[in-house]
Amino acid sequence: MGVFDGKVALVTGAARGNGEGISRVIASKGGTVVLTDLSEKVTDTAKDIGCGAVGYVMDVCDYDAVKRVVDDVVAKLGRIDVLANNAGITCITPFLETTDELRDRTLKVLQNGVWNCTKAVLPYFLKANYGRIVNISSVTGPVVCDPYEVAYSMAKAGVMGFTRAVAVEYAARNITCNAVLPGYILTNMARETAERSKPGHADEIIGEIEKGIPMGRMGTPQDIGYLAAFLASDEASYITGIPVIIDGGNALPETNAVGGQK
Ligand SMILES: NC(=O)c1ccc[n+]([C@@H]2O[C@H](COP(=O)([O-])OP(=O)(O)OC[C@H]3O[C@@H](n4cnc5c(N)ncnc54)[C@H](O)[C@@H]3O)[C@@H](O)[C@H]2O)c1
Fold first, then answer.
1. What distance in Å separates the CA atoms of residue 178 and residue 240, rounded to the nearest whole number?
2. Number of domains forming the structure of the chain
3. Which of 60, 100, 133, 208 could bridge across to 113 with cysteines, CB 3.0–4.6 Å?
4. In this structure, are 105 and 206 located in the same domain?
5. What pLDDT is attached to residue 257?
6. Ligand 1 within 6 A of 189 CB?
7. Is 55 found in the same domain as 80?
8. Percentage of the chain exceeding pLDDT 70
């Protein structure tokens, strides 16, 4: 018996990285997973996961497309119990060089994407008097940030406000809405961030990042999958509107000198 037996979970940005990790963990616990992504690779990822997982090409920025997918999933599978809003892009640019277009693109994917998918799925949650929403925000913005992350930080902090507002509005309807705040997780996005920080030296930057993480390693998509799956399960039914940091202790140190730290 798995905690997601008989349940259907829709995951955005699931072709690879954290979305793939979330999909794999939910499928391993008995859920039927609907993987969605801008990339056509999503159908291969779904096939590889098996367990009835299906893939849809879907842009979270396009509300009509999102609604079409959600309606089709409910018509075919009869229900959606879990929405994991994970699709994302990064933006590493000095503030004064961040064009309005780049800012708008970042906000569109990271904020409107969460908005669109939640809006399309919520009517089904309300009909069922049941729903679990897990938003993949970030520590970047709500908790910490490095230089060149103004647009990304603004977007991810906004996702936290969205999470609390949806949580309180629908708490009485047995719908929870929580946020996962990852630190550095070894995915293509983290590599891209490292590459943009020092072109041609991504591995060196990743090594430097890992040195600063108290647990000494970056996280994995599976780490994110286990946390998202918990928040999406009935075991978390009394938790709502909460940001959960998952960063190997990275946001903890007050200094890098006291107590003999390197
Ligand atoms: N990797 C990290 O260190 C880290 C840290 C904190 C938060 N996050 C967040 O985790 C989430 C997943 O990131 P990742 O690291 O797996 O990145 P990734 O680049 O490996 O995967 C992101 C996926 O989202 C998809 N995507 C992008 N735009 C989309 C759109 N408009 N519609 C649908 N799909 C779209 C991409 O095609 C890709 O498959 C993001 O929201 C990211 O901000 C990642």
1. 5
2. 2
3. 60
4. no
5. 86
6. yes
7. yes
8. 99
pLDDT at 262 exceeding the cut of 70: no
Whether residue 18 contacts residue 136, with contact meaning beta carbons closer than 8 Å, is answered with yes
Strand partners, 185: 219
Rg of the chain (C-alpha set): 18
56, 152, 170, 184: which one is catalytic? Answer: 152
User: How big is the CA angle at 245 (ends 243 and 247), to the nearest 5 degrees?
Assistant: 165
- The span from the CA of 205 to the CA of 218, in Å, is 12
Amino acid 1: pLDDT: 77
Q: Whose CA is nearest to atom 24 of ligand 1?
A: 13
Are residue 92 and residue 207 in the same domain, yes or no?
no
Q: Do 102 and 203 fall into the same domain? A: no
Minimum-distance ligand 1 atom for the alpha carbon of 90: 43
256 domain-assigned: no
In the reported structure, the alpha carbon of residue 1 is separated from the centroid of ligand 1 by a whole-number distance in angstroms of: 31
One domain for residues 123 and 192? no
**Is position 257 within any domain?**
no
Count CB-CB contacts under 10 A for residue 22.
32
Q: Do 124 and 201 sit in the same domain of this protein?
A: no
Tokens of 84: 């994991």
Domain region containing 28: 8-182+220-245
Residue 65 Cβ inside 6 Å of ligand 1? The answer reads no
Tens digit of each residue's pLDDT (9 = 90 or more) over 44-82: 999 999 999 999 999 999 999 999 999 999 999 999 999
Tell whether 134 and 212 lie within a shared domain: no
Q: Tell me, using a 6 A CB cutoff, whether residue 21 lines ligand 1.
A: no
Told to judge if 152 belongs to the known catalytic residues of this protein, a careful annotator would answer: yes
Are residues 71 and 150 located together in one domain of the fold?
yes
Q: Is 13 in the pocket of ligand 1 (CB under 6 A)?
A: yes
